[in-house]
Amino acid sequence: MAFLSATLDRVKPSPTIAVTTKAAELKAAGRDIIGLGAGEPDFDTPDNIKAAAVAAIAAGKTKYTAVDGIPELKQAICAKFKRDNALDYTPAQVTVGTGGKQVLYNAFMATLNAGDEVIIPAPYWVSYPDMVLLAGGTPVTIEATLAADFKITADQLEAAITPATKWFLFNSPSNPTGAGYSWDELKALTDVLLRHPHVWVMTDDMYEHLAYGNFKFCTPAQVEPRLYDRTLTVNGVSKAYAMTGWRIGYAAGPEMLIKAMRKVQSQSTSNPCSVSQYAAVEALNGTQDFLAPNNALFERRRDLVVDMLNQAPGVVCPRPEGAFYVYPSIAGCIGKTSAAGVLIDNDETFAAALLEETGVAVVFGAAFGLSPNFRVSYATSDAALEEACKRIVGFCKSLN
Ligand SMILES: Cc1ncc(COP(=O)(O)O)c(C=O)c1O
């Protein structure tokens, strides 16, 4: 009898975490490494949020809480959905978990049976297909190509839907491409879903507040209110509020689904960290003034990275609408050889040679389901970004 579960054979460890760990190890060994792998802001959690956490500790708010969130936080989440997305939810329709990651996982665990299909546009956040597999479902990917600005079309969605489709998983702005769907682009997708009443929408709005230029964020239940009863709107405080380590994510949707997700959480982790929940109340209810300057900073970095990477021979880097990632194609580098003699036959060998020969850590595209590309996280200092891009350009120039 095998000791380890057969389910584990179906999934792989997170490649983004692997790259971050490898970069940290090389750095610790004394190498000059610039990590562009991590998906988290480089600035600190705002002081008002930290102060709320300190006050919660001082007040002894350090015990178990309600399994899926304290009432104050659920209220703050309802107010956020109303304020930012014009969506009406009651606290009974809201669940809070240990990061958006747990919330998504709970939703799959609570709904998927063997054979149930989940449509996932690729490139996707690395965890989506593996979470579906862990929960016993079947991921079905559709390609969002560079030529289509990394967005899927209504026809592609229509063609992917079968009687076994349970969820359509939507993520805009996207990790890893930064692509954001406009209202009209999203409406084209929700029109398809209206024709298929058995399909539910799970929308991962984690990068809602990281939107640049004229791009305006929108979310499925807002664009098509007739989908409200079969939409789970997932969000969190990790990215916009620089709170990745606090581990608070949340979702709102039909009460029956929220209850089922609570049941999963009640038998696994119980409540998310009590202190973090009080910090999240302040994040959502407190000043939002730092969002605009942070966005201005990220937009400037996006432009810096896009402009520099497009100078690299063989690289094409589109300018995305949001998040803090770009996802350049390296189609023009495939088949070439690096200065150290490595044949670049796919994006994994490209990323490995780049790290080995220049000390720049990026995540290869195959991890996200669309190749040949790599993902750059530009949530790091201007100086580090400039130096890293210089090295990438130099590396690509050296290929022959
Ligand atoms: C698209 C997307 N969804 C969800 C998450 C999970 O965020 P967290 O669990 O930190 O709230 C991430 C984090 O990288 C992400 O990129």
TrEMBL record:
Residues 32-392 form the Aminotransferase class I/classII large domain. Keywords: Aminotransferase, Pyridoxal phosphate, Transferase. It catalyses: L-aspartate + 2-oxoglutarate = oxaloacetate + L-glutamate. PANTHER family: ASPARTATE AMINOTRANSFERASE. This is Aminotransferase. Belongs to the class-I pyridoxal-phosphate-dependent aminotransferase family. One of its GO terms (molecular function) is pyridoxal phosphate binding. Pfam families: Aminotran_1_2. Its EC number is 2.6.1.-. GO terms for biological process: amino acid metabolic process. Its cofactor is pyridoxal 5'-phosphate. Homodimer. The lineage of its organism: Bacteria, Pseudomonadati, Pseudomonadota, Alphaproteobacteria, Rhodobacterales. The keyword Transferase applies. It comes from Yoonia vestfoldensis SKA53.
